[in-house]
Amino acid sequence: MSELSKDHKDTIFEKELLPHMQALYNFAYHLVGNEDDANDLVQETFLKAYRFINSYEKGTNAKAWLFKILKNAFINEYRKKTKRPGQVDYEDVLSYHEADDVTYVGSLDLRQEVYQDMMGDEVTRALNALPIEFRTVILLCDVEGFTYEEIAKIIDIPIGTVRSRLFRARNMLKEKLREYAMNLGFKENR
Amino acid sequence: MNKETTHHNCQELISRVFLALDGAMSKEEEQKFLEELNSCNCCLEKYQVERSFKEFLSLKISRKCCSESLATDIRRKIVYYKQDDPSVS
Predict the structure, then answer these.
(1) Chain B residues in contact with A138 (beta carbon < 8 A)
(2) Which of A2, A37, A93, A186 could potentially form a cystine with A181 if both were Cys, beta carbons 3.0 to 4.6 Å apart?
(3) Chain A residues with CB inside 8 Å of B89's CB?
(4) How many angstroms separate the CA of residue B35 from the nearest CA in chain A?
């Protein structure tokens, strides 16, 4: 691919990449859990994007491309720094969970007042309690609205795995929300 | 888990609920799916429950706003990068 001129690079950067900053920040925040690290991760992402802007094809999915860069930066650099001894590697958690049959855990009765009254903070806390790879698919699908194909590209897994991981992630989240509801004093009648 | 059904295969239909909700079906596929769904109360209910859950999540998961200075910080980093890299200037 031919090298882009400096002005051309700057135009693409301003017009096609930078507008996704807010969505990237939100994703980063949910991955790292605090503002400072989220800021660093987003800055890192845009710097990488600028360096590799020649491999970005104009008019293609800029948002998915940026999310992929952010996800990789998070895995390669950020997690290495923060990984504490004794912490369970999420790949172990994954192979454990994904080996299970895909069966229905059941559903939340969202008509119950307790769920309607739940604040965003509580739902976000339940989400953040999920292992990182399960949290990621929920964020990409239900918050950002990416397609299965885009998600498969962003996290480098087959589409079939995107589906099964999403399925499991939603069930885990329901389970967490049910626990929260129980703690709030709601008794299940089943 | 493998319940025999007398009409259509509920398990098969339910396995496609998320394809419909996550926008992974073509318009025609979705149309056909919704028609099948309407013929079975238990499948329809499952679909509605999952749809409400998806709406619930997108409504309740808080979206964090970045600081106003983030774009400025990013542009500043790019300027430094350009100064350091002789191939860009």
Answers:
(1) 57
(2) A186
(3) 6
(4) 23
Contact check, Cβ <8 Å, A110/B61: no
For chain B, positions 20-49, list CB contacts with chain A under 8 A: 22-24, 46, 49
Contact B77 A47 (CB under 8 A): yes
**Side chain identity, residue B30:** E
Q: Judge whether residue B22 has pLDDT over 70.
A: yes
User: Within chain B, what is the greatest distance between any pair of CA atoms?
Assistant: 73
pLDDT digits (tens, 9 = 90+) for B32-73: 999 999 999 999 999 999 999 999 998 888 888 999 999 999
For chain A of 190 residues, list the mean pLDDT of each consecutive stretch of 10.
78 94 96 93 96 84 96 83 53 51 61 72 89 95 95 95 94 90 68
